[in-house]
Amino acid sequence: MKRFIGFIKKEFYHIFRDRRSMFILFGMPIAQIMLFGFAITNEVNNVKIAIFDQSKDIETQQIINKISASSYFDIQQEIRSEAEIESVFKKGKVKAVLVFEKDFSKKLQTQNIGKVQVISDATDPNMANTISNYISSILQNYSQEKNKITPSAYQIQTQTQLYYNPELKSVFNFVPGVMTVILMLVSAMMTSISITREKELGTMEILLVSPLKPFQVIIGKVFPYIFMSIINAIVILVLGYFVFEMPIEGSLVLLAFETVLFIICALALGILISTISDSQQTAMMTSLFGLMLPVILLSGFIFPISSMPLPLQVISNIIPAKWFIIIIKAIMLKGATFAVIWKETLIIIGMTFLFTIISIKKYKIRLE
Q1: What percentage of the chain carries pLDDT values higher than 90?
Q2: 179 near 336, Cβ under 8 Å?
Q3: What's the mean pLDDT in 129-150?
Q4: Considering the domain 47-163, what is its CATH architecture?
Q5: Among 26, 81, 23, 29, CA closest to 50
Q6: Beta-strand pair 47-53/96-100
Q7: Does residue 192 sit in helix, strand or coil?
Q8: Which of the four, 73, 85, 211, 349, has the lowest number of CB atoms within 10 Å?
Q9: Are the CB atoms for 158 and 100 separated by under 8 Å?
Q10: Helices marked H in 23-118 — which ranges?
Q11: CA 156 → CA 57, 77, 118, 132, distances in Å?
Q12: Backbone angles phi, psi at 96, to 5 degrees
C-alpha cells in the first residue's frame, strides 16, 4: 500500500513539475469558460450606425439622442445624401443607416404617422435582423412616451431595407466563415504537426544536415499544404456559388490574391507553433486552443465582435481570421476593390512577416 501511495505521489509531482500539463488542466478550462461566457451572445452592443436625417427637426434630434444614449448603438457619422449609403457600407464599419423622411416632425403632428427607414448591412443576417428589431423597439418606446404627454396617438412606422443579402440567407455568412476556419486549420495546424513530427522522430536532424538548406526544408514541408489549401478554397467557393448561390460580386483575381495571402499567413503561424512545440500532441493542443477557438469565437464569424467586452475586442485584432473574413465578405458580397480593403490586407501582410521573423529567431539548427 505504501508503494502504491508513493506511486500516486510521484505522479502528482510529475504533473506539478510539467507547466504545460498544469496549463492544460487548469488554464484551458478557465480560458474556455471566459471565452464562451463573454463571446457567445446574440445581443448587440455598441454597434456602429450612421444617420441620414432629411428632416433635422426637434423630433428627429430627440430620437437620435435616445438611440445614442442607449448602449446598443454608437452613432459613427451623419451622412448628407442617399448616394453615401453604399460607400459607407463598403467601408465595413457601419452596420446600419437610420433614414428619417423629410418633414418628419410635421407629418407626425398632422398625420400622426412618421416613417423611419432602417437600412442594414445584411452580410451578417442575424446581426441585421437584430439591429432592426432593437431600433424598432427604441422607436416604439419613444412613441409610447410621447403618447403619454400628448393627446394625439403618435405612430412611428419602421421600414426595413437590407443591403447585399435581402433574403437574409445565413449561408452568405457561413461560406466565408467556414472557408476561413478550414484554411486556418489545414494550413496552420497540419503544418505545425508535420514539422513537429519530424522533430519528434528525429528525422529533422537528418534533413538539416542534407544538401538542402534549412529554408528549403521548411518550404518543402509546407508547399503541399499550400496546394491543398488552395484546392479546399476552390471547392468551397464552387460549392457556395453553384449549390448555395453565394454571389461573387468582386474581382476573382483579387479574391484569389487575398486567399493565397491568408494561406501564407496561416502557414507562417503554423511554422511558429512548430518552433515552440516538442511533440505532435503539444502542437495539436496549441493549434486547437490557440487557433480553432479564437477563429470561431473572436473573428466575427458567428458572434458580433462589437458586442463583446473591450478586452476581447482588443484580442480579436491579433487574429488573422478576423481580417480575412472582413476582406472576403467585402469582395464577395459588396464587390469591394483593393482601395476599400487595403488596410486589412496590410495587416495580414504585417502578421505574416511578424510570424516569419519570430520563427526564424526561434528556429534552431541543432535540435535539443
Answers
A1: 15
A2: no
A3: 84
A4: 3-Layer(aba) Sandwich (3.40)
A5: 81
A6: parallel
A7: helix
A8: 211
A9: no
A10: 28-39, 58-69, 84-91, 104-110
A11: 15, 23, 12, 14
A12: -155, 155
pLDDT computed for residue 342 by the predictor:
93
- The pLDDT score that the predictor gives to residue 231 is 87
101 DSSP assignment = P
DSSP state of 325: H
The alpha carbon dihedral of 305, 306, 307, 310 has a sign of positive
| Cβ–Cβ < 8 Å for 347, 85 | no
Looking at every residue in the chain, the average pLDDT score rounds to 81
How do residues 42-87 score in pLDDT, each as one tens digit? Answer: 677 888 999 998 888 888 888 888 888 888 888 888 888 888 888 8
- Separation between Cα atoms, residue 239 and residue 171, nearest integer Å: 11
Tell me the longest C-alpha to C-alpha distance in the chain: 92
Q: Cα separation of 51 and 96, whole Å?
A: 9
C-alpha R_g of the chain: 26
Give dist(CA 354, CA 149) in Å, integer.
61
pTM confidence score: 0.81
CA dihedral 218, 224, 229, 232 (to 10 degrees): -170
Measure the N-to-C terminal CA separation of the chain; round to a whole number of Å.
39
Per residue in 297-340, pLDDT (tens digit) is: 888 887 788 777 888 888 889 989 999 999 999 999 998 899 99
> Domain map of the chain by residue range?
47-163, 170-362
C-alpha cell at 288: 486547437
Helix (H, G, I), strand (E, B) or coil at 73: strand
Q: Are 262 and 232 in contact (CB under 8 A)?
A: no
CA 304, CA 289: separation in Å to the nearest integer? 20
Q: How many C-beta atoms lie closer than 10 Å to residue 116's C-beta? A: 18
Q: How many residues does the chain have?
A: 368
Residue 366 above 50 pLDDT? no
Q: How confident is the model at residue 128 (pLDDT cuts 50, 70, 90)?
A: confident
pLDDT tens per residue across span 1-43: 666 676 666 666 766 666 665 665 566 566 656 655 555 666 7
Q: In what order do the strands lie in the sheet with 113-121?
A: 73-78, 47-53, 96-100, 113-121, 155-163
